[in-house]
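[agent] plan:
  1. take the single chain provided in the ticket
  2. run structure prediction with default settings
  3. attach structure tokens to the ticket
  4. add a short note for the reviewer (M.T.)
[agent] executing step 1
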Amino acid sequence: MALSMRIARRMDKRFSTIPEPLWPKLKLLIPPPVVKTRRGRPRNDERAVMAGIIYRLRTGCQWRAIPPAFGSGQTCHRRFQEWERRGVFQQLFVCMLHYDDHRRGIQWQWGALDSVIVKAPKGGEPPLVGRAHGKPRRWVVERTNSWHNRFRALLIRWEVKARNYLALVYLASALIAHQQSS
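[agent] step 2 finished; step 3 output follows
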């Protein structure tokens, strides 16, 4: 049996799949590939690469440790960088907020903002800081932090670029919003 098949069998589905109702929304946000005139390997499937990025987000593994079932870790990282620059993850988060608001109705007056301190062993750029007004409801903050803690790549910030870490937060938040609205 091929190595990728053995790895795929051992993988927990929570870590390796994109929910079916989410994929059509996500597919619309992914920019079409640039057509190259020179020869080379065929481009990896967008869904498999996105599943690899989600796998890395959920497990916290290094990019090069992504199982070959998703394509190489280098391909997943390169595509992640490309999609981050084009704002795919932020657009997905906004799309899922609108979807959740339409399905269940978001109670905007209950919004809460909190900060989370995570280790950054590689240093990295300074954090993105904003200002907050009003008194947060503690349980809303704790619940949201608990949901984010299910994504191991957010627990320790290995990303040197603040934009990459923020893209992972957007992706995790979009997956949470999708799960809550289902």
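[agent] step 4 note for reviewer: The two ends are 36 Å apart (CA to CA).
[agent] ticket updated
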